[in-house]
Design goal:
Elements: H1 8-13, E1 20-24, E2 29-38, E3 41-50, E4 53-59, E5 67-74, E6 79-86, H2 95-105, E7 108-114, H3 120-136
Parallel strand pairs: 4-7
Antiparallel strand pairs: 1-2, 2-3, 3-4, 5-6, 5-7
Pfam families: PAC4
Keywords: Proteasome
GO biological process, one term: proteasome assembly
């Protein structure tokens, strides 16, 4: 098995639905799980939309958490800071995704990423699918003439 192949059975065995969306209790928490085939690799996603925050998990090879990153805007310079919460010492897969999601959404972001190390194309394609789903879920704001297209909370 190559390092970029994924096992769907472990994901399903962990109790995750391959496709599903629930609005929990009307309190503004939205959970979305989905699976995408990207370059002959099965990727599993879960998005938990909280007020003013997004948690996203991208899984490949297993239903393990993987590296966990937190990212947020930093004042006063309005840059994005990213920190590793779990893993990430020599494998920063997911930190770039977290940084770019903050820039696109304007929200605090937690990203758990279980994508094989040294798979930049798989990581880029996983991010693209994640952003497409966030847009489809309506987590976008109107376009600003100066800033161009942006993703944000609704």
């Amino acid at each position: 098995m190559s390092s970029s192949s994924c096992k769907t059975s472990e994901f399903e065995a962990a109790g995750f639905d391959s496709v599903g969306q629930d609005d929990i209790g009307g309190g503004g928490v939205q959970v979305t799980s989905f699976t995408e085939l990207v370059d002959d690799v099965t990727l599993h996603f879960q998005i938990i939309r909280l007020p003013k925050q997004i948690y996203a998990w991208i899984g490949c090879n297993s239903a393990k958490l993987g590296n966990l990153y937190a990212a947020a805007h930093t004042r006063p310079s309005n840059t994005v800071s990213v920190t590793s919460i779990l893993g990430g010492a020599s494998d920063n897969t997911g930190s770039g995704i977290a940084r770019r999601l903050v820039l696109k959404t304007g929200l605090n972001v937690i990203v758990a990423c279980n994508i094989p190390k040294n798979s930049p194309m798989l990581e880029a394609n996983a991010e693209k699918k994640l952003v497409e789903k966030l847009i489809a879920l309506g987590h976008s704001r109107s376009k600003s003439p100066a800033a161009g297209p942006v993703l944000s909370s609704s």
